[in-house]
């Protein structure tokens, strides 16, 4: 019952996308009707030709030649119209797919980070690429079969009724049996195709994960274990795919058997009627041709039921992504945050990624403009989570965060984040040139400003040694660049922007000690007059901070400068001494 509702809902959503192209659909229906009418006129010509040669020694060659000319003209016109109809169907299909994919990608931009945390990137990619492609194949087949099939059924009924009403009623009564066979099998194969799509997405997710982490896999000699996991998923995919295809493949033989039985009954009934003089031999030939064409759409639909069921299952997964709740939108009266001076206040902030596991509880903090705030503590204490809340990647569950006296939830996200410059431990580079990656935060910067920023980040020297210098093309993961070089490019990006608030989350974790000392000096100059949040594990790098926050289990347990915290001989002192034995 639930799956039936899902299928109906999916069909309704497909129709919603099709409404925009009603004119093209009307043209397709018109061409389908005309081509079917011309196709159905051919058996009438054949019947007339049969009647012209039925008598012994009384063949009307002139009439036959005239019928042949007329038939050739109709066949040529039908071919042209079918070509136009197929072009229109293709255009409708791929415009709908374009709309679906664009909407899915737009949704991806507005999804909360919590969704991406819960779903592997490979699964999301599978929905947007593989599932949409499968949906396109099924939609195109549906268009091709539906309009022509519907017109053929109606047309043949009209023509058969003009020839013999009683035999037509026999065809109409018996033929729907094939529909019941097709519907029964299709109903029971939908779940199998949905499972197939989900398993394929799981496999894509594993492949994506392994490609991105191949060095880690090889470093820990996990190749055999990963191969076993892949084989296990592959076996499940093979099992559910074979089961789905096997059961769905029964549809076509089953419906063809029913239709052949119908054809035999019609032929026997028609022959008896011809013997009794109720129908001519040519009329019987025409009627049998119509009976065959009447059953053909049912055969065509049953032959593509596999693709249609697969298409609906894939479409439902794509629509699930599109219908995911977006992140909380900016408030209607949200203000554009401008001319920030960097005063930050956190009042009774609480937050957790999962409701049953509290992380940050009743956190209070007041930061004055221009202060350097260091955040230290054991892994999992909430340091990076605090940064995520400041950037509003996540919204607080309780309390509030204010920037320059204004709650950040009353600001537009874009203007808030433009006030921050952030360098993380995990680097992010896009496919393109070195120049494009540095200019990402400030595209209007001059060449001189870009180079000066790279020099301040100590990246200029290695950039100039690359084959193309600043025009060297790199991939999204940095290609052959070392982790330290990629981090230097990210630092150059921030050096170029120089926003009023800086966030450095283990910004020099992948850089050698000598270069780190130079960059720390550059950071010192950059942080002058700017509010700065520095997350660090190496406590020697944050001794000059104005305030050091010591976090544990989501709470600030100690607060002060380096000398004050050492004098207290508390948790910070233990951390610092453990690193300087």
Identify the strand order in the major beta sheet.
6-9-10-3-11-12
CATH class of the domain at 2-200 and 241-322: Mainly Alpha
Output the number of helix runs: 21
**How many β-strands, per DSSP?**
12
Instruction: Specify the overall morphology.
Output: elongated
User: Could you please say which CATH topology of the domain at 2-200 and 241-322 applies here?
Assistant: ABC transporter transmembrane region fold
- In what range is the share of β-strand residues? 5-15%
Major sheet summary line: 6 strands, mixed
Q: Report the CATH architecture of the domain at 2-200 and 241-322.
A: Up-down Bundle
- Helix percent band: 55-70%
Radius of gyration: 35 Å
List the uncertain runs. none
Q: What's the average pLDDT?
A: 79
Report on this structure.
With 581 residues, this protein is α/β, with parallel strands linked by helices. Among the domains are: 2-200 and 241-322, ABC transporter transmembrane region fold; 427-498, 3-Layer(aba) Sandwich (Rossmann fold). The chain has helices at 2-18, 22-52, 61-110, 113-118, 121-163, 165-174, 177-212, 214-219, 223-249, 251-275, 281-303, 305-322, 383-390, 413-418, 434-438, 447-456, 460-465, 483-497, 513-527, 562-568, 571-579; strands at residues 344-351, 360-367, 372-376, 398-403, 406-407, 420-423, 432-433, 473-474, 501-505, 531-535, 547-552, 555-560. The strands form three sheets. The protein has a six-stranded mixed β-sheet with strand order 6-9-10-3-11-12. A four-stranded antiparallel β-sheet has the order 2-1-4-5, covered by helices on one side. Strand 9 (501-505), helix 19 and strand 10 (531-535) form a beta-alpha-beta unit. Helix 7 packs antiparallel against helix 10 (251-275). The mean pLDDT is 79.
